[in-house]
Amino acid sequence: MPDRGIENRALNAVRARGRSPMNRLVVVGASLAGLRAVEAARKTGFAGDITLIGGERHLPYDRPPLSKEFLEATEPGVEARVPFFRSDDVFPQLDVELLLGQPATGLDVARKVVHVGDRQIDYDALVIATGSQLRTLAGTEHMPGVHGLRTLEDSLAIRAALDAGARTVVVGAGFIGSEVASGATKRGLEVTVVEALPTPLVRAAGAEMGAAIASLHERNGTTLLCGRGVAAVEGDGRVERVVLDDGTLIDADLVVVGIGVSPCVSWLEGSGLAIENGVVCDETLWTGVPGVYAAGDVANWLNPVFGVRQRMENWTAAAEQGAAAARNALDPENAKPYGTVPYFWSDWYGSRIQFVGVPDADEVLLVDGDVEDGERWVALYRRGDRLVGALTVNGQTVIMKYRRMIAQKSSWGDALEFAEKRWASA
Amino acid sequence: MKVVVDFNKCAGLGICESMAPDLFEVNDDGALVLLKEDITDDELQSVEEAVAGCPTEALRIER
User: Shortest CB distance from B30 goes to which of A316, A396, A403?
Assistant: First the structure.
């Protein structure tokens, strides 16, 4: 008979050697996910050093308003309110060292060091939350009057152009571009949206509903041209016109390019982390490298709700993943899976578009409202015999009920029964 | 314990309803209705998730 006591003592000694002390948390990326990571670390009682590294020089700020209310006209002399998450006294209170305006430049997982230029910052636990960067239209990157929209500076520049009454061309009929188009139309400006694909928003909402949502543009007086590429953006010193691949010329003072983002991973080159459409993580947001976790737009993780890999580009996932990654990084032995039913919203022309779940479906069924009148509708997404997604336009009172049903893996039959009841009682 | 909603910040996005439907519901007009403000021990975790998940940071728990 082996002596269990000796065996256990030996095992514990091995475990103790294997567990490194947890004195330093480093979070790379000072937007929503990074902010929530440092806040969650303190909330769990972590008393060690925390460093928050950000490429932008600003304190963390909220991005969704930048394409929505921040672009709205204000009274002369009134500045739009910058949506900072926290005032600057919060970070000393949290005892968080801020390194802003200094992007991380490299990661050495063997020595557990993050490089920020010449500086080396040691970590015991690391959360990578570097987000994503805009895809650009080749050849237009430095042309005055052409902007993407991701940062505060981008939004300020677009806002100033709208204030000046710019004739606006939006390239890409995704959510960000559509929100800008909506804001410009609301100001009474001339707006054209150009989309390269025959149907917009297919990846986000599927072909049928993508077309239905996009019809809000025409209904509200915005010209939408689909299946047309941009051949050139021309101008003498600044943008003057956009040339489409069918020869169409559109005069423009402002061009907003909204053709998607890619995860910010170039600084991780050579680090040994698995990179494929972002930083590859397991369901606890762990990269498989000791101490290293990822969160937000940059994280390609296994979502246990659907059993598939996903990389989210939405607010809710960034906030929740930031907190979950920090908690797991600081206590890896008790790491918990992070699962979610994806959620995003977008506001155009006074309508609220909301989507929960995933759009890859065997069937999309309109269960309430009318796509033709464009006022309000509810569509459900079926895969196999499960409800996997729901889209509403001005359906705020039902969308979250479907989110719960998706999380609970409700059947298609149950979803239809619920929809029928809602319809009957309306 | 009770939950407090800052209606100046709330945009009716509804994440809270998906986390804690016994306390929160968004109505037909898109406005949040607080169904009850007192939180039971059983509800605490889901309300904490709602606070953390709120995209306008409009919720807090008063202990």
Answer: A396
